[in-house]
Automatic annotation (TrEMBL):
<protein>
    <recommendedName>
        <fullName>TRAP C4-dicarboxylate transport system permease DctM subunit domain-containing protein</fullName>
    </recommendedName>
</protein>
<dbReference type="GO" id="GO:0005886">
    <property type="term" value="C:plasma membrane"/>
</dbReference>
<feature type="transmembrane region" description="Helical">
    <location>
        <begin position="218"/>
        <end position="238"/>
    </location>
</feature>
<feature type="transmembrane region" description="Helical">
    <location>
        <begin position="97"/>
        <end position="120"/>
    </location>
</feature>
<feature type="transmembrane region" description="Helical">
    <location>
        <begin position="336"/>
        <end position="353"/>
    </location>
</feature>
<keyword id="KW-0812">Transmembrane</keyword>
<dbReference type="Pfam" id="PF06808">
    <property type="entry name" value="DctM"/>
</dbReference>
<feature type="transmembrane region" description="Helical">
    <location>
        <begin position="141"/>
        <end position="161"/>
    </location>
</feature>
<feature type="transmembrane region" description="Helical">
    <location>
        <begin position="57"/>
        <end position="77"/>
    </location>
</feature>
<keyword id="KW-1133">Transmembrane helix</keyword>
<feature type="transmembrane region" description="Helical">
    <location>
        <begin position="173"/>
        <end position="197"/>
    </location>
</feature>
<keyword id="KW-1003">Cell membrane</keyword>
<dbReference type="GO" id="GO:0022857">
    <property type="term" value="F:transmembrane transporter activity"/>
</dbReference>
<dbReference type="InterPro" id="IPR004681">
    <property type="entry name" value="TRAP_DctM"/>
</dbReference>
<feature type="transmembrane region" description="Helical">
    <location>
        <begin position="395"/>
        <end position="416"/>
    </location>
</feature>
<feature type="transmembrane region" description="Helical">
    <location>
        <begin position="244"/>
        <end position="262"/>
    </location>
</feature>
<feature type="domain" description="TRAP C4-dicarboxylate transport system permease DctM subunit">
    <location>
        <begin position="7"/>
        <end position="419"/>
    </location>
</feature>
Length: 427
Protein backbone atom coordinates (compact mmCIF):
# COMPACT_ATOMS: atom_id res chain seq x y z
CA UNK A 1 0.00 0.00 0.00
CA UNK A 2 2.83 2.38 0.87
CA UNK A 3 4.55 1.60 -2.45
CA UNK A 4 1.40 2.53 -4.38
CA UNK A 5 1.07 5.74 -2.37
CA UNK A 6 4.68 6.70 -3.18
CA UNK A 7 4.11 6.10 -6.90
CA UNK A 8 0.89 8.13 -6.89
CA UNK A 9 2.60 11.03 -5.10
CA UNK A 10 5.50 10.87 -7.57
CA UNK A 11 3.18 10.93 -10.60
CA UNK A 12 1.12 13.77 -9.09
CA UNK A 13 4.20 15.91 -8.48
CA UNK A 14 5.47 15.32 -12.01
CA UNK A 15 2.04 16.15 -13.48
CA UNK A 16 1.98 19.52 -11.68
CA UNK A 17 5.47 20.14 -13.15
CA UNK A 18 7.56 19.90 -10.02
CA UNK A 19 11.19 19.41 -11.16
CA UNK A 20 11.86 15.68 -11.50
CA UNK A 21 14.61 15.56 -8.89
CA UNK A 22 12.40 17.28 -6.29
CA UNK A 23 9.43 15.07 -7.18
CA UNK A 24 11.50 11.91 -6.68
CA UNK A 25 13.10 13.24 -3.49
CA UNK A 26 9.73 14.33 -2.05
CA UNK A 27 8.22 10.90 -2.67
CA UNK A 28 11.25 9.19 -1.18
CA UNK A 29 11.18 11.36 1.94
CA UNK A 30 7.50 10.57 2.39
CA UNK A 31 8.30 6.87 2.23
CA UNK A 32 11.07 7.20 4.81
CA UNK A 33 8.81 9.13 7.18
CA UNK A 34 6.08 6.49 6.89
CA UNK A 35 8.47 3.59 7.41
CA UNK A 36 10.93 4.94 10.01
CA UNK A 37 11.21 7.07 13.12
CA UNK A 38 12.58 10.59 12.93
CA UNK A 39 15.97 9.48 14.26
CA UNK A 40 16.21 6.68 11.71
CA UNK A 41 15.30 9.06 8.88
CA UNK A 42 18.08 11.45 9.96
CA UNK A 43 20.57 8.58 10.01
CA UNK A 44 19.53 7.44 6.51
CA UNK A 45 19.79 10.97 5.10
CA UNK A 46 23.29 11.34 6.55
CA UNK A 47 24.51 8.32 4.57
CA UNK A 48 22.45 7.66 1.44
CA UNK A 49 22.81 11.01 -0.45
CA UNK A 50 26.59 11.10 0.03
CA UNK A 51 27.19 7.45 -0.83
CA UNK A 52 25.03 7.75 -3.98
CA UNK A 53 27.48 10.14 -5.67
CA UNK A 54 30.77 8.67 -4.46
CA UNK A 55 31.21 6.45 -7.51
CA UNK A 56 34.33 7.38 -9.47
CA UNK A 57 32.53 6.42 -12.68
CA UNK A 58 30.11 9.33 -12.22
CA UNK A 59 32.98 11.76 -12.76
CA UNK A 60 33.06 10.68 -16.42
CA UNK A 61 29.67 12.34 -16.98
CA UNK A 62 30.72 16.02 -16.51
CA UNK A 63 33.90 15.32 -18.50
CA UNK A 64 31.94 13.95 -21.47
CA UNK A 65 29.50 16.88 -21.26
CA UNK A 66 32.38 19.38 -21.26
CA UNK A 67 33.95 17.59 -24.22
CA UNK A 68 30.70 17.96 -26.17
CA UNK A 69 30.47 21.69 -25.49
CA UNK A 70 34.10 22.23 -26.45
CA UNK A 71 33.54 20.44 -29.74
CA UNK A 72 30.53 22.67 -30.41
CA UNK A 73 32.95 25.61 -30.11
CA UNK A 74 35.14 24.04 -32.81
CA UNK A 75 32.47 24.43 -35.51
CA UNK A 76 33.05 20.86 -36.72
CA UNK A 77 29.34 20.06 -36.87
CA UNK A 78 28.81 22.43 -39.81
CA UNK A 79 31.87 20.98 -41.53
CA UNK A 80 30.59 17.43 -41.11
CA UNK A 81 27.24 18.36 -42.64
CA UNK A 82 28.87 20.15 -45.56
CA UNK A 83 31.12 17.13 -46.11
CA UNK A 84 28.11 14.83 -46.26
CA UNK A 85 26.37 17.09 -48.78
CA UNK A 86 29.47 17.08 -50.97
CA UNK A 87 29.71 13.29 -50.90
CA UNK A 88 26.00 12.53 -51.51
CA UNK A 89 24.65 15.75 -53.02
CA UNK A 90 23.46 14.23 -56.31
CA UNK A 91 21.68 11.33 -54.61
CA UNK A 92 17.94 11.85 -54.01
CA UNK A 93 17.78 12.50 -50.29
CA UNK A 94 21.49 13.31 -50.26
CA UNK A 95 21.11 16.14 -47.78
CA UNK A 96 19.18 13.80 -45.50
CA UNK A 97 22.07 11.33 -45.74
CA UNK A 98 24.43 14.19 -44.90
CA UNK A 99 22.36 14.99 -41.79
CA UNK A 100 22.49 11.37 -40.67
CA UNK A 101 26.25 11.09 -41.22
CA UNK A 102 26.81 14.39 -39.40
CA UNK A 103 24.64 13.11 -36.57
CA UNK A 104 26.68 9.90 -36.34
CA UNK A 105 29.92 11.88 -36.36
CA UNK A 106 28.78 14.36 -33.75
CA UNK A 107 27.30 11.57 -31.60
CA UNK A 108 30.71 9.91 -31.60
CA UNK A 109 32.11 12.77 -29.57
CA UNK A 110 29.18 14.52 -27.89
CA UNK A 111 27.00 12.05 -25.93
CA UNK A 112 24.04 14.45 -25.75
CA UNK A 113 20.94 13.80 -27.88
CA UNK A 114 19.39 17.24 -27.49
CA UNK A 115 22.70 18.99 -28.21
CA UNK A 116 23.10 16.97 -31.41
CA UNK A 117 19.49 17.69 -32.49
CA UNK A 118 19.75 21.41 -31.76
CA UNK A 119 23.04 21.79 -33.64
CA UNK A 120 21.81 19.80 -36.65
CA UNK A 121 18.54 21.71 -36.79
CA UNK A 122 20.31 25.03 -37.14
CA UNK A 123 22.14 23.84 -40.23
CA UNK A 124 20.64 20.84 -42.01
CA UNK A 125 16.88 21.31 -41.43
CA UNK A 126 16.80 24.80 -42.86
CA UNK A 127 19.09 23.78 -45.73
CA UNK A 128 16.85 20.83 -46.63
CA UNK A 129 13.71 22.98 -46.62
CA UNK A 130 15.46 25.52 -48.87
CA UNK A 131 16.36 22.70 -51.29
CA UNK A 132 12.71 21.65 -51.60
CA UNK A 133 12.36 18.92 -48.96
CA UNK A 134 8.98 18.65 -47.29
CA UNK A 135 9.26 20.37 -43.88
CA UNK A 136 8.14 17.29 -41.94
CA UNK A 137 10.80 15.22 -43.74
CA UNK A 138 13.54 17.77 -43.08
CA UNK A 139 12.76 18.20 -39.39
CA UNK A 140 11.70 14.63 -38.61
CA UNK A 141 14.98 13.08 -39.71
CA UNK A 142 17.03 15.64 -37.77
CA UNK A 143 15.07 15.11 -34.53
CA UNK A 144 15.51 11.35 -34.94
CA UNK A 145 19.19 11.42 -35.86
CA UNK A 146 19.84 13.45 -32.71
CA UNK A 147 18.86 10.40 -30.65
CA UNK A 148 21.96 8.56 -31.89
CA UNK A 149 24.04 10.53 -29.37
CA UNK A 150 22.34 8.57 -26.60
CA UNK A 151 23.64 5.31 -28.03
CA UNK A 152 26.89 5.91 -29.91
CA UNK A 153 29.78 6.34 -27.43
CA UNK A 154 30.67 8.29 -25.49
CA UNK A 155 27.02 8.27 -24.38
CA UNK A 156 26.36 10.18 -21.17
CA UNK A 157 23.13 8.29 -20.53
CA UNK A 158 24.82 4.89 -20.94
CA UNK A 159 27.40 5.92 -18.34
CA UNK A 160 24.57 6.95 -16.01
CA UNK A 161 22.84 3.60 -16.53
CA UNK A 162 26.09 1.74 -15.81
CA UNK A 163 26.49 3.54 -12.49
CA UNK A 164 22.83 2.96 -11.57
CA UNK A 165 22.90 -0.73 -12.50
CA UNK A 166 26.41 -1.25 -11.07
CA UNK A 167 27.46 -2.57 -14.48
CA UNK A 168 30.75 -2.05 -16.31
CA UNK A 169 30.95 1.47 -17.71
CA UNK A 170 33.50 0.35 -20.28
CA UNK A 171 31.31 -2.52 -21.49
CA UNK A 172 28.29 -0.19 -21.82
CA UNK A 173 30.26 2.36 -23.84
CA UNK A 174 31.59 -0.34 -26.19
CA UNK A 175 28.15 -2.00 -26.42
CA UNK A 176 26.57 1.15 -27.86
CA UNK A 177 28.63 1.14 -31.07
CA UNK A 178 26.94 -1.63 -33.08
CA UNK A 179 23.35 -0.79 -31.99
CA UNK A 180 24.01 2.89 -32.76
CA UNK A 181 25.11 2.09 -36.30
CA UNK A 182 22.15 -0.27 -36.78
CA UNK A 183 19.76 2.47 -35.68
CA UNK A 184 21.44 4.91 -38.10
CA UNK A 185 20.89 2.45 -40.97
CA UNK A 186 17.26 1.95 -39.90
CA UNK A 187 16.70 5.72 -39.96
CA UNK A 188 18.22 5.97 -43.45
CA UNK A 189 16.01 3.13 -44.73
CA UNK A 190 12.96 4.79 -43.22
CA UNK A 191 13.84 8.04 -44.96
CA UNK A 192 14.52 6.40 -48.34
CA UNK A 193 11.35 4.31 -48.66
CA UNK A 194 8.99 7.29 -49.15
CA UNK A 195 11.61 9.06 -51.30
CA UNK A 196 11.76 6.09 -53.67
CA UNK A 197 7.96 6.13 -53.89
CA UNK A 198 7.83 9.90 -54.34
CA UNK A 199 11.18 11.53 -55.31
CA UNK A 200 9.68 15.02 -54.97
CA UNK A 201 9.82 14.60 -51.18
CA UNK A 202 13.62 14.97 -51.28
CA UNK A 203 15.11 16.39 -54.49
CA UNK A 204 18.73 15.77 -55.47
CA UNK A 205 21.32 18.49 -54.85
CA UNK A 206 24.42 19.62 -56.70
CA UNK A 207 27.06 17.22 -58.03
CA UNK A 208 30.70 17.34 -56.90
CA UNK A 209 33.99 16.29 -58.46
CA UNK A 210 36.01 13.42 -57.01
CA UNK A 211 38.58 15.94 -55.84
CA UNK A 212 35.91 17.85 -53.91
CA UNK A 213 34.63 14.61 -52.41
CA UNK A 214 38.13 13.69 -51.24
CA UNK A 215 38.66 17.12 -49.67
CA UNK A 216 35.26 16.84 -47.97
CA UNK A 217 36.54 13.92 -45.90
CA UNK A 218 39.11 16.08 -44.12
CA UNK A 219 36.71 17.47 -41.45
CA UNK A 220 35.92 13.92 -40.35
CA UNK A 221 39.55 13.26 -39.45
CA UNK A 222 39.56 15.10 -36.06
CA UNK A 223 36.27 13.42 -35.09
CA UNK A 224 37.68 10.00 -35.92
CA UNK A 225 40.86 10.78 -33.97
CA UNK A 226 39.00 11.86 -30.82
CA UNK A 227 36.68 8.86 -31.08
CA UNK A 228 39.70 6.58 -31.38
CA UNK A 229 41.33 8.19 -28.33
CA UNK A 230 38.23 7.94 -26.12
CA UNK A 231 36.72 4.61 -27.17
CA UNK A 232 39.96 2.92 -28.25
CA UNK A 233 41.56 3.54 -24.85
CA UNK A 234 38.59 1.84 -23.16
CA UNK A 235 38.35 -1.04 -25.64
CA UNK A 236 42.04 -1.96 -25.38
CA UNK A 237 42.13 -1.48 -21.60
CA UNK A 238 44.60 1.40 -21.78
CA UNK A 239 42.45 3.73 -19.65
CA UNK A 240 39.32 3.72 -17.52
CA UNK A 241 36.20 5.49 -18.86
CA UNK A 242 36.90 8.48 -16.60
CA UNK A 243 40.51 8.69 -17.78
CA UNK A 244 39.35 8.36 -21.39
CA UNK A 245 36.87 11.19 -20.85
CA UNK A 246 39.67 13.37 -19.52
CA UNK A 247 41.75 12.53 -22.59
CA UNK A 248 38.75 13.50 -24.74
CA UNK A 249 38.52 16.89 -23.03
CA UNK A 250 42.24 17.48 -23.60
CA UNK A 251 41.94 16.47 -27.27
CA UNK A 252 38.92 18.75 -27.69
CA UNK A 253 40.79 21.72 -26.23
CA UNK A 254 43.70 21.09 -28.61
CA UNK A 255 41.26 20.86 -31.55
CA UNK A 256 39.46 24.10 -30.64
CA UNK A 257 42.78 25.95 -30.31
CA UNK A 258 44.11 24.45 -33.56
CA UNK A 259 40.99 25.60 -35.43
CA UNK A 260 41.38 29.09 -33.90
CA UNK A 261 37.94 28.91 -32.30
CA UNK A 262 39.10 29.30 -28.72
CA UNK A 263 37.72 32.18 -26.66
CA UNK A 264 37.55 32.72 -22.92
CA UNK A 265 33.81 33.65 -22.95
CA UNK A 266 33.13 30.49 -24.97
CA UNK A 267 35.03 28.36 -22.45
CA UNK A 268 33.14 29.97 -19.56
CA UNK A 269 29.84 29.25 -21.33
CA UNK A 270 30.85 25.60 -21.91
CA UNK A 271 31.83 25.25 -18.25
CA UNK A 272 28.59 26.78 -16.97
CA UNK A 273 26.47 24.54 -19.20
CA UNK A 274 28.47 21.52 -18.01
CA UNK A 275 27.83 22.42 -14.38
CA UNK A 276 24.10 22.93 -15.03
CA UNK A 277 23.62 19.60 -16.79
CA UNK A 278 25.83 17.68 -14.37
CA UNK A 279 24.05 19.24 -11.40
CA UNK A 280 20.69 18.12 -12.77
CA UNK A 281 21.94 14.56 -13.25
CA UNK A 282 23.57 14.36 -9.82
CA UNK A 283 20.44 15.78 -8.16
CA UNK A 284 18.36 13.01 -9.74
CA UNK A 285 20.95 10.41 -8.66
CA UNK A 286 20.70 11.55 -5.03
CA UNK A 287 16.89 11.76 -5.12
CA UNK A 288 16.56 8.35 -6.78
CA UNK A 289 18.73 6.69 -4.13
CA UNK A 290 16.57 8.15 -1.36
CA UNK A 291 13.42 7.02 -3.16
CA UNK A 292 14.95 3.62 -3.91
CA UNK A 293 15.88 3.11 -0.27
CA UNK A 294 12.29 3.67 0.80
CA UNK A 295 10.80 1.71 -2.08
CA UNK A 296 13.07 -1.28 -1.47
CA UNK A 297 11.80 -1.58 2.08
CA UNK A 298 8.24 -2.03 0.79
CA UNK A 299 9.40 -5.39 -0.67
CA UNK A 300 7.65 -4.67 -3.98
CA UNK A 301 10.68 -5.75 -6.05
CA UNK A 302 10.95 -9.07 -4.18
CA UNK A 303 7.22 -9.71 -4.56
CA UNK A 304 7.40 -8.87 -8.28
CA UNK A 305 10.25 -11.31 -8.83
CA UNK A 306 8.37 -14.04 -7.01
CA UNK A 307 5.21 -13.37 -9.00
CA UNK A 308 6.99 -13.43 -12.36
CA UNK A 309 8.88 -16.56 -11.35
CA UNK A 310 5.57 -18.32 -10.93
CA UNK A 311 4.26 -17.39 -14.36
CA UNK A 312 4.21 -19.94 -17.17
CA UNK A 313 4.22 -17.44 -20.06
CA UNK A 314 7.30 -17.25 -22.37
CA UNK A 315 10.03 -14.77 -21.47
CA UNK A 316 9.48 -12.96 -24.79
CA UNK A 317 5.93 -12.09 -23.70
CA UNK A 318 7.22 -10.57 -20.47
CA UNK A 319 9.89 -8.63 -22.39
CA UNK A 320 7.21 -7.35 -24.76
CA UNK A 321 5.26 -6.05 -21.76
CA UNK A 322 8.40 -4.42 -20.35
CA UNK A 323 9.03 -2.78 -23.74
CA UNK A 324 5.53 -1.31 -23.79
CA UNK A 325 5.96 -0.02 -20.21
CA UNK A 326 9.22 1.73 -21.11
CA UNK A 327 7.69 3.09 -24.30
CA UNK A 328 4.85 4.65 -22.28
CA UNK A 329 7.23 5.99 -19.62
CA UNK A 330 9.26 7.64 -22.38
CA UNK A 331 6.18 9.60 -23.43
CA UNK A 332 6.08 11.40 -20.08
CA UNK A 333 9.42 11.16 -18.26
CA UNK A 334 13.04 12.14 -18.68
CA UNK A 335 15.53 9.37 -19.52
CA UNK A 336 17.59 9.94 -16.39
CA UNK A 337 14.51 9.71 -14.18
CA UNK A 338 13.30 6.55 -15.93
CA UNK A 339 16.63 4.82 -15.42
CA UNK A 340 17.05 5.97 -11.83
CA UNK A 341 13.56 4.87 -10.80
CA UNK A 342 13.03 1.66 -12.75
CA UNK A 343 16.37 -0.06 -13.32
CA UNK A 344 16.95 -1.13 -9.69
CA UNK A 345 13.51 -2.79 -9.76
CA UNK A 346 13.30 -4.15 -13.31
CA UNK A 347 16.91 -5.27 -13.90
CA UNK A 348 16.75 -8.26 -11.49
CA UNK A 349 13.56 -9.35 -13.25
CA UNK A 350 15.17 -9.07 -16.71
CA UNK A 351 18.21 -11.03 -15.53
CA UNK A 352 15.95 -13.88 -14.38
CA UNK A 353 14.64 -14.00 -17.96
CA UNK A 354 18.18 -14.66 -19.21
CA UNK A 355 19.15 -11.17 -20.40
CA UNK A 356 22.39 -9.40 -19.53
CA UNK A 357 22.70 -6.11 -17.59
CA UNK A 358 24.77 -4.59 -20.43
CA UNK A 359 22.15 -5.62 -22.99
CA UNK A 360 19.39 -4.16 -20.82
CA UNK A 361 21.24 -0.84 -20.64
CA UNK A 362 21.27 -0.55 -24.44
CA UNK A 363 17.60 -1.56 -24.56
CA UNK A 364 16.47 0.95 -21.91
CA UNK A 365 18.43 3.80 -23.50
CA UNK A 366 16.95 2.97 -26.91
CA UNK A 367 13.41 3.07 -25.48
CA UNK A 368 14.20 6.38 -23.79
CA UNK A 369 15.55 7.81 -27.04
CA UNK A 370 12.24 6.92 -28.72
CA UNK A 371 10.56 9.05 -26.06
CA UNK A 372 12.61 12.03 -27.24
CA UNK A 373 10.75 12.08 -30.58
CA UNK A 374 7.23 11.03 -29.53
CA UNK A 375 4.42 13.16 -28.11
CA UNK A 376 3.62 14.72 -25.78
CA UNK A 377 7.04 15.50 -24.28
CA UNK A 378 9.45 14.65 -27.10
CA UNK A 379 12.30 16.97 -26.15
CA UNK A 380 14.21 16.62 -29.42
CA UNK A 381 11.08 17.60 -31.35
CA UNK A 382 10.65 20.82 -29.39
CA UNK A 383 14.35 21.64 -29.76
CA UNK A 384 14.26 21.11 -33.54
CA UNK A 385 10.95 22.96 -33.97
CA UNK A 386 12.34 26.01 -32.18
CA UNK A 387 15.70 25.96 -33.98
CA UNK A 388 14.15 25.43 -37.43
CA UNK A 389 11.21 27.78 -36.84
CA UNK A 390 8.60 25.10 -37.63
CA UNK A 391 5.36 23.97 -36.01
CA UNK A 392 5.83 21.35 -33.29
CA UNK A 393 3.11 19.02 -34.57
CA UNK A 394 4.70 19.14 -38.01
CA UNK A 395 7.96 17.86 -36.54
CA UNK A 396 6.11 15.17 -34.55
CA UNK A 397 4.47 13.93 -37.76
CA UNK A 398 7.83 13.78 -39.49
CA UNK A 399 9.49 11.94 -36.58
CA UNK A 400 6.86 9.24 -35.95
CA UNK A 401 7.96 6.92 -38.81
CA UNK A 402 11.49 6.99 -37.41
CA UNK A 403 10.17 6.24 -33.92
CA UNK A 404 8.38 3.21 -35.38
CA UNK A 405 11.64 2.07 -37.01
CA UNK A 406 13.42 2.34 -33.65
CA UNK A 407 10.71 0.19 -32.04
CA UNK A 408 11.39 -2.43 -34.72
CA UNK A 409 15.12 -2.27 -33.90
CA UNK A 410 14.35 -2.71 -30.18
CA UNK A 411 12.28 -5.79 -31.05
CA UNK A 412 15.21 -7.20 -33.05
CA UNK A 413 17.48 -6.69 -30.03
CA UNK A 414 15.02 -8.61 -27.83
CA UNK A 415 14.92 -11.51 -30.28
CA UNK A 416 18.68 -11.55 -30.91
CA UNK A 417 20.44 -10.03 -27.86
CA UNK A 418 23.82 -11.29 -29.10
CA UNK A 419 23.79 -8.41 -31.63
CA UNK A 420 24.22 -6.00 -28.73
CA UNK A 421 26.67 -8.12 -26.75
CA UNK A 422 28.96 -9.20 -29.58
CA UNK A 423 31.41 -6.29 -29.37
CA UNK A 424 31.69 -5.98 -25.56
CA UNK A 425 32.09 -9.75 -25.29
CA UNK A 426 35.04 -9.54 -27.67
CA UNK A 427 36.98 -7.21 -25.37
Amino acid sequence: MIALLLLLVLVALIVVRVPVSFAILGSGLLGLVLLHTAGEVNGILEVVPVSSVQSLSLSAIPLFILMAHLLLMSGLMDSLFDAGRTLFGRTPGGTGIASTLAGVGFSAVSGSSTAAAATLAKTSSKRMIEEGYRPETATGIVASVGTLAGMIPPSIILVFYAVTAEASVGDLIIAGIVPGLIIAVALLVTMFVPILLNPSRAPAGQSSTWSEKANAMLPATPIAAIFAVVVGAIYFGIATPTESAALGVLASVILVVARRKWSFPGFVHATIETVKTSGMIFAIVIAAHVFGYAFTETKVADNLLGWVGGLTVPSLVIMAIIMVIYLVLGFFMDQVAIIALTVPIVLPLVETLGYDAVWFGVFVVLMGEIGLITPPLGLNVFVVARAAGRDTMEVFRGALPYAAAMVVVATVFILWPEIVLWLPNSV
